[in-house]
């Protein structure tokens, strides 16, 4: 009697030493991309003094990188499935290194914004390729969760480590050095990557749809821009029209995916509660982390008077907790249901955000450390588990496209965290700032940013300067309180959603 043929059991396929070395290379590339998303937070005072950007340019310097990256991720993730994820990874590494050099030696706000756009384009090729390659390399589910834990630790830890890296560099070099650190790592990736990372792509990818690629960008960027500008300057008919363009493009994109035989984005994935909940959770957790980093670094430097390096060191415990809990998430889900682990992690982050309501202008560095540690712990868990849920839901040959969905949520969360929460802080700061004793030009400069107010206060007469500085500190902290309260509510609501939607799965 003929016996059954051998069956494929992914739990028996173990990764080789070469595979783990490939993970190290991928992890370092993710680390740098994530550092680049937040490394500018501490450099902004130096850039403001050197390039004198407006408040709008200041926000664009920080978040245009994430806007462009988020707009291109779906396109690049699908492209990587077609031409090869490793090939796209190496192309992106070369482009990222070149863009970093341009950014480092920028001589105007416009040049720096353009360089950040180029970084975003290159970063969009790197992020989905790294996670997609991990899905292909690590077939064993338990090993894959561990590998994604390392990837998540680098992504979350990199975002949180950005201020520390930037702080050290700014203590010793000029602000352009925060970009030059990318070049050696990208060079190593280009040289070592082909030796330890096998090529992977979809053998039957179907036709690449340029119209869908254009619609995905046309949906993402106008919507985020309209939200950002509305929060900063108030809603207008022009911004409403720009937002409407994004909504219309998004509707057209979705409609087109439903009719194409080979869609760029498989919308049926979102019908799975675990998948859609994981994507939303990924976005909101990074939204919280990036917002805290944006206003937290300014609080430490410009309110409490810490140097860039001191501010980075004060953020180090939170960074460490994010990394530790990203790695520990794989251990937690072997003992408890993912819905329980994920919802508890989000609740802890919510408590961390709420703790910031007790920060004040006269001091509070210790309380900030505790709050950031709690926030970082929950976000670390969320990044690992949501990414694992997303890439584990599709077959390996489509890992790039699925990874792009997760990465789009991540990068959109970074951009919106800075744009929305940062703009809320700025709006309340401007409303509470007392500029009655200043001339028109000084008043305008003080209302642009907290850094501008501090600069004006230093050059003003003693009494006027002291009053302006007190007003600036109090109004900025008031804005932080509102942003922290909103963040805590959003994260707690997300924790409840996760538990309800995923507890039976």
From TrEMBL:
Which InterPro entries has this protein been placed in?
Answer: MFS (IPR011701), MFS_dom (IPR020846), MFS_trans_sf (IPR036259)
**Per UniProt, which keywords does this protein have?**
Cell membrane, Membrane, Transmembrane, Transmembrane helix, Transport
The membrane topology of this protein is: Multi-pass membrane protein
Residue ranges annotated for the Major facilitator superfamily (MFS) profile domain, each copy included: 22-505
Pfam families this protein is in? MFS_1
Q: What is its main location?
A: membrane
Q: Which CDD domains match?
A: MFS_MMR_MDR_like
- Report the subcellular localization: Cell membrane
Residues folding into a coiled coil are none
According to the record, the segments passing through the membrane are 20-38, 58-76, 88-107, 113-134, 146-168, 174-198, 210-227, 233-254, 275-297, 309-333, 340-361, 367-391, 412-429, 476-499
Q: Which PANTHER family match?
A: MAJOR FACILITATOR SUPERFAMILY MULTIDRUG TRANSPORTER MFSC, METHYL VIOLOGEN RESISTANCE PROTEIN SMVA
This chain's protein is named: MFS transporter
